[in-house]
């Protein structure tokens, strides 16, 4: 058994103060370890903001349950197949979480600056994908398919119907611009620190 810390595909990201961790027990040279199968957070630890963790764990459990019969005969090829499957079936959802957290971090770090810049057409369309779901059930269904891991965003939003609905909504809302509310990160943290020191009874204010 090789040491998984020395090899393997270990991806971590801390975006917007949120952890996401990918633990692949194989790399370009093949499996790092056999006889050990990670599922759930052991492979795809995603922070809870998108509520993906349980679905990702169940999908992995399903794959392992279906293929477990062959694991004992060919442990190395079982481990390699599992790794390939996780890359293809789970990694895209992990990467979406990381991208979403990075975007949120950029926005929350300084919302005032983000609002001051005129939005590009692409940014406006992207923001409208979310805003229009409150008016259009077709768009809400597309979004729900993504949130519930039925389809990746490019497929759910890529249909002719969805693109036409989005164009219609943008035409009906010519003044729509992506809106950011709330304080900047530093402002929020200093406000929370003040409250914490003021409200914890019997504890000396922390510095
Ligand atoms: C605050 C919060 C909110 C979340 N909200 C959502 C949500 O809305 N939707 C969603 O899909 N996901 C959500 N998640 C993520 C979800 O909980 C996890 O992705 C999921 O529980 C992963 O399942 P798991 O079996 O891999 O790990 P876990 O559920 O963590 O199970 C691991 C188990 O192993 C046990 N254990 C650890 N070490 C040992 C040991 N040495 N010996 C024996 N037992 C051990 C632990 O006690 C634990 O019971 C949330 C997570 C958090 C923290």
Automatic annotation (TrEMBL):
InterPro entries: FAD/NAD-bd_sf
Annotated Gene3D superfamilies: FAD/NAD(P)-binding domain
Origin: domain of life: Bacteria
Protein name, entry field: Uncharacterized protein
Lineage: Bacteria, Bacillati, Actinomycetota, Actinomycetes, Kitasatosporales
